[in-house]
Amino acid sequence: MDSLVLAGIVLALLFNFVNGMNDAANSIATIVATRVLSPVQAVAMAAFFNMIGPLIFTTAVAKTIGKGIVDPVFLTTSVLLIGLVVAVLWVFISSRAGIPISATHALVGGLIGSAAAYAGIGVIVLPSVGTILWLFMYAAIGAIIGMVLFSIIGRLTKEEAMLPFIAQGAFAGAVLSVPFVIITGILKISGLFAIVVFIVVSPLLGFISAYLISLVFIRWFRNANPKKMDFFSKKLQIVSASFYSLGHGSNDAQNAMGIITAILIAGGVLHEFIVPVWVIVLSCAAIALGTLLGGWKVVKTMAKRITQLRPYQGFCAETSGGVVLSFITAFGVPVSTTHAITGAIMGVGASRGCSAVQWGIVRQIVTAWVLTIPITAVTAFIFYFLYRAAGF
Q1: For residues 23 and 299, what is the distance between their CA atoms, to the nearest angstrom?
Q2: Which of 16, 18, 145, 242 counts the most CB atoms within 10 A of its CB?
Q3: Residue 258, H or E segment
């Protein structure tokens, strides 16, 4: 096996390792914040379910990473190596700074930048203008339907603040319409466009679902003994945290799988895009090990700085985050698990009122989300030119 291919495999596994370090917060933040499990117990549990996640789900996400972002013809070993180096650096720096970012988007940006430097912007797999316009049209239709439904509900329930209530309906309708048209096959999106769309949609889906589940939970147990409810919620939270970790591993561990398979094809080891079993096992092990060692600064940000969580809220956040991840993974979209759980944590916080959420911290996190792909793409673009200038 070529030395560059071996270097690429090692880098891809290192990427999954630092991914696990940063995204450890996604899997364990809520259960640590509510003190249902100790940090060591929570990390061990998350590592186990991160390990088996990709073995249960399909490898559709890996195929998107390897074939749906950049034209695979131009994914040379050097392009993949530069993209990986930049992604690893960005995730590691963010983890040290305690910033929960998307390792998936760091990898996407790295691949885009290095491939564009190698063969031009045309190698990036972009959607048609018609697809983009249809997406906005469906979102607008969903917003109108949401406004109408909420105005009817508001009048029936004699809602006092009608305008904010109708605005919430428009927001929910616009967000929910996008996954609806994708599920039903009305609109087909894939590759880079799907990733960009779900940068916005996944945290909003997490927010809405967690907000609604929290309200239902509160309503259901409103007359329950607080101590009994806490005890019941803690048991439920172990199940929900395991479910979320399973979804996290099934999506994020596939990043390295897609890259390693692409490297093996570029190096002539494989001739078609089929993820080998040993690649699945090594990728799972790398992300599980990263989770086991953990990124405790990120955990602190996610567990304590966004909102104060009680066990029932941890259960609601993890359940919603797990549902969102499972749905998106089924469609082969490499999504930010950070986005999904952060949106869910904000949703459970907002169920107690807007003041319960530290919106200043949220703004910092969202800024890091927005900047990840542009920064890694530009950095990889520069790194590739330096690589070529050095005579490689």
Answers
A1: 9
A2: 16
A3: helix 254-266
Q: Given pLDDT bands bounded at 50, 70 and 90, which one contains residue 320?
A: confident
135-155 pLDDT tens trace: 999 999 999 999 999 888 888
Whether 113 is covered by a domain: the verdict is yes
CB contact at 8 A, 181 and 141: no
pTM listed for this prediction:
0.77
Same domain membership, residue 16 and residue 159 = no
Domain coverage including residue 175: 128-188
User: Per the domain annotation, does 382 fall within a domain?
Assistant: no
- Is 241 found in the same domain as 225? yes
- Shared domain for 31 and 135, answered yes or no, is no
237: left (phi over 0), alpha (psi -120 to 50) or beta: alpha
Which pLDDT band, with edges at 50, 70 and 90, does 334 fall under? low
Residues 20 and 115 reside in one and the same domain = yes
What confidence score (pLDDT) does residue 295 get?
Answer: 61
Q: Phi and psi (nearest 5°) for 70?
A: -125, 145
Residues 6+ away with beta carbon under 8 Å from 350: 207, 211, 356, 357
pLDDT on residue 379: 94
**What number is the average pLDDT over the span 100-123?**
86
Round to whole Å and give the CA distance between 226 and 223: 9
How much is the pLDDT for 303?
56
Q: Write out pLDDT tens, residues 43-84.
A: 778 777 777 776 776 666 767 777 778 888 888 888 888 998
Other Cβ atoms within 10 Å of 135 Cβ, number: 19
Record the tokens describing residue 331, joined without a space. 């469609």
Q: Please say if the pLDDT value at position 300 is more than 90.
A: no
Domain ends where: 142, 169, 188?
Answer: 188
DSSP string covering 324-388, please?
A: HHHHHHHTT----HHHHHHHHHHHHHHTT-GGGS-HHHHHHHHHHHHHHHHHHHHHHHHHHHHHH
Structural domain includes residue 387:
no
CA distance 167 to 149: 11
3-state helix, strand, coil in the chain (%, to 5): 80, 0, 20
Q: What's the rounded Cα separation, in Å, for the pair 266 and 345?
A: 41
pLDDT of 78: 87
